[in-house]
Write a structure and sequence with these properties.
Shape of chain B: globular
Helix content of chain A: over 70%
Strand content of chain A: under 5%
Low-confidence stretches of chain B: none
Number of strands of chain A: 0
CATH class of the largest domain in chain B: Alpha Beta
Structural class of chain B: alpha/beta
Strand order of the largest sheet of chain B: 5-6-7-3-8-9
Order of helices and strands of chain B: EEEHEHEHHHEHEHEEHEHEEHEH
Structural class of chain A: mainly alpha
Mean pLDDT of chain A: 90
Distance between the termini of chain A: 26 Å
Largest interface: A-B, 29 and 36 residues
Helix content of chain B: 25-40%
CATH architecture of the largest domain in chain B: 3-Layer(aba) Sandwich
Mean pLDDT of chain B: 86
Largest sheet of chain B: 6 strands, mixed
Largest sheet of chain A: none
CATH topology of the largest domain in chain B: Rossmann fold
Distance between the termini of chain B: 37 Å
Oligomer: heterodimer
Order of helices and strands of chain A: HHHHHHHHHHHH
CATH superfamily of the largest domain in chain B: P-loop containing nucleotide triphosphate hydrolases
Number of helices of chain A: 12
Strand content of chain B: 25-35%
Number of domains of chain A: 1
Radius of gyration of chain B: 23 Å
Number of strands of chain B: 13
Chain lengths: 317, 312
């Protein structure tokens, strides 16, 4: 049966309202405070490191993001860890919060489809994350200009923008995951816990699990060297189920132009390559294309599951 | 009168095996205040959700203002306002912000919406707290804000689910007055309740729900006639005569029972007060009190469900 009227009626109203809500919520302020503090900490550490080791390097600005000095991890490592937290904070009570505030049936009795409500919430969340990421990036760039005394080159800006896009897709995956849990579980605390559990699983335990599982699936035969390759391939494939792995690989290739490959590489494939020579931006973009596509696909798939679950839900109370 | 705004035919809704609404036929006409009446779990809220297209019927059809809520839900929801049971608002936003959000969802232009919101807040007497956060509002204020929501929407039909549940008597009266005003301005109102006294004072017609079915539909007085036999209940207090004997054979009296010392309750099919007074006085009694109660819906309700239970 076909329904009349556009499913996008009211979409922008919902998205703008959600974005405004997030911007003023104490929850968002806390998470952003955490992110900004860690960002400033890691950038200062990176600047110290860069200043003490600086030589001839065409991509000084990019080093701001990737350089780590003990005991602090680099800025991108921090983001890989904290971006999911932002996504979860923005989404974990998206749908069940409307039920517990008893606003759901009133909102759905307005002339909008459920599509607009869910999509609006998702887009509103993405918008806020986007604004935060751009702010952070400008902050880091500004700190870099102040302390290093160099403006970024156009190539660095291009890579920075691509890095922002990858970060947005990565945070979008986690926003979609937390919104999925918020449709599946009626209590916001349950959905928050479920999302945090998945986050810990992927950021901390997945790196330990992948080699174990790969070892079980493709055991290494000491007399057959190709089994080592098989196991490594399995391990990498399994690790790439985690969005954190995909994001890590994408940022590595984008922010370190000398990255030539993200997987196994044989010596004969390196023939004629200038080791350590930077790749042009297009080549790096080509390299991370599968990772970026994977992140966006994961975001779309998880959102679709949430969408179907939400559409089938009974709106009582 | 006469134009049907809501028509339901054979409406049925099952959740797994549980039946929420079964074979519901209902016609509600323009300008009515229609009461959906029944105990909790009788299918009132499900019926409302079906009318709005918020849930899909297992069988049967609905037309609301000529539209099918399943095929064209936006057209229905644009013209029909819904005030859910224990309505919720966004606590961190002010009353005005809440209303302007729903106005934006309804696609009302900004300037027009601002005017309607001022007007609506004025009418529900919330104008002086318009800039306060809804978190500080009492239950009665929230309910009035819900009515303001309907006013901003300027809907033709308003569906109110248990509008007075959990309100103190004063807030209840205030809300009922508001509902009465809206009705006089031409809004069709459907309200559900298990509070019969309240329904009786505002509704032109009621439908009695029982286990997902509509048992009876009609005016309160007609229902009373149907269920209780007599639509009029007269109480008389007199000394110095046998009232019951005096009333013997009086046309229209179906039953006269002694309810206390000198107090007699008369069930009648018409207004028999004049005749009763003459008879009592004629037989030498001192008439002390004579009052008529339109038989209350409570009794209809209790009697009806007793009958249903007996039949089952």
């Amino acid at each position: 049966m076909r329904r009349e009227g556009s499913p996008f009626t009211g979409l922008s109203a919902v998205a703008m309202k959600e974005a405004a809500d997030h911007m003023t919520s104490a929850r968002m302020h806390l998470v952003m405070l955490l992110v900004i503090l860690t960002a400033i900490g890691s950038i200062y550490a990176a600047i110290g490191q860069i200043k003490s080791t600086v030589g001839q390097d065409a991509f000084l600005f990019l080093h701001l993001f990737t350089t780590a000095r003990q005991p602090l991890p680099s800025f991108v490592a921090f983001l890989g860890f904290l971006l999911p937290l932002i996504g979860i904070a923005l989404g974990f009570d998206a749908v069940n919060g409307e039920y517990s505030r008893r606003t759901m049936s009133r909102i759905l009795s307005q002339p909008i489809y459920r599509d607009a409500l869910l999509a609006g919430k998702f887009l509103g969340g993405l918008l806020v994350i986007g604004i935060c990421l751009v702010t952070l990036w400008l902050l880091v760039t500004g700190l870099g200009i102040l302390t290093l005394g160099l403006p970024p080159t156009s190539e660095e800006i291009l890579r920075g923008i691509a890095f922002l896009a990858a970060s947005l897709a990565y945070a979008g995956v986690w926003l979609a995951v937390s919104m999925l849990f918020s449709t599946l579980f009626r209590s916001p605390s349950t959905s928050a816990l479920a999302a945090l559990t998945l986050w810990l699983l992927f950021t901390i335990f997945w790196g330990m699990l992948a080699p174990l599982v790969a070892g079980a699936i493709a055991p290494v035969d000491p007399f057959n060297p190709i089994t080592v390759v098989h196991q490594a391939e399995w391990q990498q494939a399994l690790a790439r189920i985690s969005p954190n792995t995909l994001y890590g690989e994408a940022t590595t290739a984008l922010l370190d132009p000398s990255t030539r490959s993200l997987g196994l590489i044989f010596l004969n494939q390196l023939q004629g390559a200038l080791m350590g020579a930077p790749l042009p931006f297009e080549a790096s973009a080509l390299l991370i294309w599968p990772q970026l596509a994977g992140l966006i696909a994961a975001m779309v798939v998880v959102y679709t599951i949430a969408y179907v679950a939400f559409q089938r839900q009974e709106i009582r109370a | 009168m006469g134009e049907a705004v809501i028509e339901a035919n054979g409406l049925t809704k099952r959740y797994d095996r549980a039946i929420a609404v079964e074979g519901l036929d209902l016609t509600i006409e323009r300008g009515e205040v229609f009461g959906l009446l029944g105990p909790n779990g009788a299918g009132k809220t499900t019926t409302i959700l079906l009318l709005l297209g918020l849930t899909e019927p297992t069988a049967g059809t609905v037309r609301v203002l000529g539209f099918d809520p399943l095929r064209d839900p936006l057209a229905v929801k644009r013209r029909v306002g819904y005030l859910p049971d224990a309505v919720g608002f966004y606590d961190t936003m002010t009353a005005r912000e809440n209303l302007s959000y729903t106005a934006r969802l309804g696609g009302i232009a900004r300037a027009e919406a601002a005017m309607r919101i001022d007007d609506a807040l004025q009418r529900v007497r919330l104008a002086d707290v318009a800039e306060r956060r809804v978190a500080t509002f009492s239950r009665g204020m929230r309910q009035r804000l819900g009515i303001a929501d309907l006013l901003v929407k300027a809907c033709e039909v308003a569906i109110l689910d248990e509008p007075t549940s959990g309100l103190d008597p004063q807030s209840t009266q205030e809300l009922l007055d508001l509902i009465g005003k809206l009705s006089r301005e031409g809004m069709t109102i459907v309200l559900s309740s298990h509070l019969l006294g309240m329904v009786q004072t505002v509704c032109t017609r009621v439908a009695l729900f029982h286990r997902g079915k509509v048992g009876l539909v009609g005016r309160v007085s007609d229902l009373a006639a149907k269920v209780l036999g007599g639509a009029f209940v007269v109480e008389i207090e007199a000394d110095g005569c046998d009232i019951v004997a005096a009333l013997d054979g009086l046309d229209g009296v179906t039953r006269a029972t002694v309810a206390g010392s000198g107090l007699v309750r008369i069930d009648a099919t018409r207004d028999v007060r004049g005749d009763v007074a003459r008879r009592v006085v004629a037989s030498g009694g001192d008439l002390k009190r004579l009052s008529m109660d339109r038989s209350s819906l409570d009794e209809v309700y209790v009697n009806y469900f007793e009958q249903v239970a007996h039949a089952a």
